[in-house]
Inverse folding.
């Protein structure tokens, strides 16, 4: 083992390992050092757009060897939680991408893709850069008619290569406003995601979480009693870090410094 103050690491992806399609300098090398030191890793993302297989492919393309079981997405957590609550066999209208539709299908929740269908048991909302107005209209209509409104996450922004884009939280706000309903949120910092991450690192006694969002990554870790590590390679800059009401355990410029 390397000499680290943690024996399990929950690692965000967007803004930590990569930004858009560009890897963060030094990220593959840092992950390789942690692996060689025997630190169990879990890559944990609120971005529900892609499937687990697509994340594995992307990370490998960026120079990181990752197994599917090391990837935890908010779409996966949403599907697992709904399955545990007895929603297998129910129907869902989805605002989002393949990550959600595949995860729901894997737990036998039928995704209704016909644009004329506006009644379902569930409305599941995630990030969708191809969102159109009819998607909002259909989701809000189903929620008003009694569908349970669920969000994979409520991140206000998404850290793209050219700046911050509207995130799932922005899409969700429109649906909540139009439907008059409030969603249950599954991703970081909410308990479903944090508990799922802890289960996957079973045996770790000193978990740390590294992320670029104090309000999701770090807040979720603080609630579980984990070590919190803020990187400045994503949505939070140095001024933002200095103004935080609660100081993270560590602030580093990027994950390249994680073991320094």
């Amino acid at each position: 083992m390397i000499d680290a103050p943690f024996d399990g690491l929950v690692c965000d992806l967007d803004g930590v390992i990569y930004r858009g399609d560009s890897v963060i300098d030094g990220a593959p090398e840092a992950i390789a050092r942690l692996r060689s030191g025997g630190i169990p890793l879990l890559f944990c993302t609120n971005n529900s757009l892609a499937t687990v297989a697509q994340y594995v492919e992307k990370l490998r393309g960026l120079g990181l060897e990752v197994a599917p079981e090391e990837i935890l997405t908010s779409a996966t957590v949403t599907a697992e939680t709904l399955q545990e609550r007895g929603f297998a066999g129910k129907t869902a209208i989805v605002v989002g991408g393949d990550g959600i539709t595949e995860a729901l299908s894997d737990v036998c929740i039928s995704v209704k893709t016909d644009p004329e269908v506006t009644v379902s048991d569930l409305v599941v909302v995630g990030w969708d850069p191809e969102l159109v107005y009819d998607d909002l209209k259909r989701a809000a209509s189903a929620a008003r008619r009694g569908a349970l409104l669920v969000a994979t996450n409520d991140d206000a922004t998404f850290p793209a290569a050219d700046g911050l884009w509207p995130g799932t939280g922005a899409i969700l706000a429109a649906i909540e406003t139009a439907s008059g309903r409030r969603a249950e949120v599954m991703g970081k910092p909410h308990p479903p995601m944090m508990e799922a991450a802890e289960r996957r690192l079973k045996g770790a006694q000193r978990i740390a979480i590294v992320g670029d969002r104090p309000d999701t990554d770090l807040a979720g870790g603080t609630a579980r009693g984990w070590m919190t590590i803020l990187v400045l390679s994503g949505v939070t800059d140095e001024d933002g870090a200095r103004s935080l009401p609660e100081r993270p355990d560590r602030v580093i410029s990027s994950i390249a410094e994680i073991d320094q």
